Each structure stands twice: as C-alpha cells, then as structure tokens.
Amino acid sequence: PYYKESYNNSVSPEDAKWEFERENLQLDTTLGEGEFGKVVKAKAFNLDGKQNYTEVAVKMLKNCASGVEQQALWSEFNLLKDVQHPNVIRLLGACTQNGPTYLIVEYCEHGSLLSYLRNSRLEENGYVNQRYKPSKHISNPKEPPELLTIRDLLSFGWQIAKGMKYLSEIKLVHRDLAARNVLVGSGKVLKISDFGLTRDVYEADTYLKQSKGRIPVKWLAPESLYAQIYTTQSDVWSFGIVLWEIVTLGAPPYPGVPPERLYNLLLAGYRMDRPENCSDELYAVMQKCWKTDPQDRPTFSKLADIFDRMLQQRT
Ligand code: ACK
User: Fold this and answer.
1) What's the 163 CA to ligand 1 centre distance in angstroms?
2) pLDDT value for 91
3) Catalytic residue annotation
4) Is 87 left (phi over 0), alpha (psi -120 to 50) or beta?
5) Bind-site residues for ATP
6) Engineering a disulfide at 102: which of 95, 114, 181, 198 sits with its beta carbon 3.0 to 4.6 angstroms away?
C-alpha cells in the first residue's frame, strides 16, 4: 500500500506523547478532500483519558499522494506540536504506526470560514448572485443561514489577527493564509489551520520557496509572486485579502482577473476596490496590508489592536 514508505518503525519519546491508538479512532464521514489529502470526521475514544469519545477531525493523505505531500503532512505535524493558541487549530494526537499517517485535530463544527461566510448569505443580499451548496456541517440544510452582523465580521478579523500575531511571535510564516484555511468552531471561534506550507523562519525572517507547488496567486504579496519571498509581512498582505473575503461574504478575490495578469497589475499599483458594505475604515486597513513595501504594512500586533479598537467603538 501507498503508505509503506512512510512507515515509521519507532516513535521518538517526544512523539510518543502524541501517538494515539488507531483502534480507538472510529472514522466517520469525509468533511472535505483536496487533490492529495482529505479530512474525515471521527470519534476518538479515551482521548486524554476521557471516558467517552471526542469528536475530532482526522487529516490524512490519499493514495495518489507523493513524497512531497507526505513531507508536508509531517511538517504540519511537527509544527502543530508546538502551537497553542485559542485562534490556532489544536493538535490532539497522531497515528504514525502500522498504517497511513493520521493527524488528529480539534473538530470545528462550522467548517471553513469560506463556506461559513458563503452559507451566511441571503438570496436578496447584494452579493448573492451565485448559489453555493449548503455545507455538510449544517445538520438541516433547510435551516435558514445564520445571519452575520458587522460585529461578527470585525470579530473574525480580530481573531485571525490575534492567531497570526501569536504565529509571528513564535516565528512561523503561514504562507497560505486564506478564508479556506481558517476554521470556525462553536461560538464562532476562528482557528487558523492548514499548516502544510508553513515554515519556521528561525533567525532569517524570509523563506525561499524551492519547489513548485500550487501557488495561491491571488492571496500572495508581490514579493512572494516574483521572488518567492515569504515573511510575516507577506502573511499580512494575505490577511488583507482575507479581510476582503470576509466583508464580501466569501467572494473570490480579483473577480475576472486572470492569475497570470495579476503580478503586472499589482506592480502598476492596481488594488481591489472597496467592496459594497465595507466601511472606509475597514477598507483603509486592507489598503495598508497591501502596501508594496512589506515594511510599510502594519504588524499583526498592530492589526489586533486596530480590530480591538473598532470592536470597542461598537459596544
Ligand atoms: O468548508 P468545509 O466543509 O470545512 O470544507 C473543508 C474541508 O474539510 C477541507 O479542508 C473541512 N475541515 C477541515 N478541517 C476541519 C476541522 N478540523 N473540523 C471541521 N471541518 C474541517 C473544511
């Protein structure tokens, strides 16, 4: 089977504390799948000594995955071991023995922020000109979508900024920050997820991407597009795109712009317009995130403060 070469015959003492008995995991429905990997809902019995079971999400590779993807799953595992923040997905365990590698993470009942935003749209709402499939996270698809308030949207920006501030403090560059990679748990708590591309920056705060994978062009800063330079400040650019996704309730960025034209447009100073229903104040934040010089962009710490203040003004 495909997982043979990824077999690990021994578990280091450090990993032993994460190892979870495969037999105690009951796989359930598939929550989502990509080209090489999938995420399955599962019940984990006796997790952390709990009597009952815990609902979890299990990330695994598909049969067609190559060594590169296996590597990405392992690097995600290694990074997640060290992260602990309410707005970052929490690792609960892993199955690395006697079968395919499984990463066990907390289950987020509302799925990705992107599908959550799209599900919250009303037909009559100005942004709705497409119908999106109801999410499999919604038990009754006939239920009316949960309406989101401006306060909810600001809180989303605030929570992502706080999670990213934490990641930047522990010197992690995410490189793929997008609404599809943020999850929504109960109580509308957001969790930054999908660390497959994340790199530790150590002392140097840049990372040069070596291999050519799929590139999320419309979320990337110009310096990442032309020089493969990824820094916390290029994550800030992506955060600006996520804000745009939030305020448009999940519209695809740069509508109508072919990805291959984007770089020249950005170079010429082109940026997305202020979306309908977006305050001047919030648009100004996006524009700051999209400054050409990475040093001119706000830090995540500054962004967290900005959203904190905007939320306070609304109480
Ligand atoms: O928007 P979704 O239904 O929610 O589609 C994506 C899909 O899997 C691929 O990423 C869902 N998903 C991923 N991780 C989790 C998780 N920890 N809890 C719940 N759903 C998840 C996501």
Assistant:
1) 18
2) 97
3) 176
4) alpha
5) 59
6) 95
How far is the centre of ligand 1, averaged over its atoms, from the C-alpha of 32 (Å)? 6
Q: Is 194:57 a contact under the CB 8 Å cutoff?
A: no
| Average pLDDT, 10 consecutive residues per value, the chain (315 residues) | 46 83 96 87 93 95 84 89 96 94 96 94 54 51 72 98 97 94 96 77 47 77 94 97 97 94 96 96 98 98 98 89
* Residue-level pLDDT at 307: 98
H runs (alpha helix) in 41-149: 67-80, 113-119
| pLDDT at residue 312, as a whole number | 96
Q: What is the ipTM of this complex?
A: 0.97
Question: Is the Cβ–Cβ distance between 6 and 81 less than 8 Å?
Answer: no
Cα(138)–Cα(14) distance, integer angstroms:
38
**Helix (H), strand (E) at residue 236:** helix 232-247
pLDDT attached to residue 166: 97
Tell which atom from ligand 1 comes closest to the C-alpha of 181. Answer: 10
Buried b (16+ CB within 10 A) or exposed e, 50-85: eeeebebbbbbbeeebeeebbebbbbbbebbeebeb
Query: How many CB atoms are closer than 10 A to CB 125?
Result: 14
Contacts 24+ apart (CB under 8 A), 211-219: 211/68, 213/68, 216/176, 216/178, 217/259, 217/262, 218/252, 218/253, 218/254, 218/257, 218/259, 218/262, 219/176, 219/177, 219/178, 219/253
Q: For residue 246, which of 315, 301, 310 has the smallest C-alpha distance?
A: 310
